[in-house]
Amino acid sequence: MSGKSFRSELVGLFGCPVDGNATGAAMEAAFKELDLGYRYITTLVYPQDLEAAVQALKAFNMKGTHITMPHKVEVMKYLDHVSETASLMGAVNTVYLKDGETFGENTDGIGFIASLTGNNIDIRGKRIAVLGAGGAARAMSIELAKAGASHIMIVNRGKDRGQALVDLLNGKTSANAELVPWDETFSVPDDTDILVNATSVGMFPDTNLPDIDFSTLLPNMIVSDAIIQNPVQTRFLEEAGKRGCKTINGVSMLINGGAVSFKLWTGLDAPIDTMKDALLAVLS
Fold first, then answer.
1. Please, what's the b/e burial string for 93-103 (b: 16 or more CB within 10 A of its CB; e: otherwise)?
2. pLDDT digit string (tens) for 180-227?
3. I need a surface site. Which of 63, 83, 103, 273 has the fewest CB within 10 A?
């Protein structure tokens, strides 16, 4: 008579804050769809505890974890291996374990590009303004450059981090990048094709607006709230929509990037439609 295993394979999310992050709903639905004995644990990890949390992945024999703000850059120093792509981006959003060692990867950029192409947006030759210069902004900006964007404007409050991203883009890609210090309300240049909010401003429970002059948005612009999926329709997107802009929420980026993580953890292709339906169901 065969026995039955009562142990679950563990994956999850490390971040601070994480209360408004609904990724777990999408991942749990995918596990159920494929009848996998996996569990997704959304975990509040304070910055001072990040190293211990990464070591706990090994102690708990976990399959891996997502990494979100503010840990995407800092986590790299605690990993055994970091992929070439993640090293170039200078940020990790997915960790997986193999042979008892931790590996860092970045799926943010892949997910974001998929969210644009899935909306029939051709990136080639486009002029793009990116709000923020954190880990997600780095990943998205590099993938935008690789996809053929001609000009990328980085709008950031901290000059050093913003300039570092601009230097990376100019040095490692064919895009022309520039830094605009975000020390006052940002006016979007009228030749901008795509405006991307790569900050967490507007994410639950913070419903504030990024400090931009919304009167400078034009109907021909595409506006993305790239990393926010709770709420699905942010105030930022609502204001852009009022001005005739095509808007893209953060659900597609999360799902497409999450599908890559799913494959790294399970070795299987993710049921993307199931994941998206589950995420929208809990956020509606």
1. bbbbbeeeebb
2. 999 999 999 999 999 999 999 998 888 799 999 999 999 999 999 988
3. 273
Q: Which of 4, 32, 58, 72 is catalytic?
A: 72
Ordered by where they begin, the domains of the chain are 9-106+255-283 (3.40.50.10860), 109-249 (3.40.50.720)
206, two tokens:
């913070």
pTM check: above 0.70: yes
DSSP 3-state of 134: coil
For residues 165 and 138, is the Cβ–Cβ distance under 8 A? yes
**Strands of the 151-156 sheet, one edge to the other:** 176-181, 151-156, 127-131, 194-197, 222-225, 246-248
Q: Which pLDDT tens digit goes with each residue over 46-68?
A: 999 999 999 999 999 999 999 99
Query: Closest Cα to residue 137, out of 181, 196, 180, 185?
Result: 196
Is-catalytic flag, 72?
yes
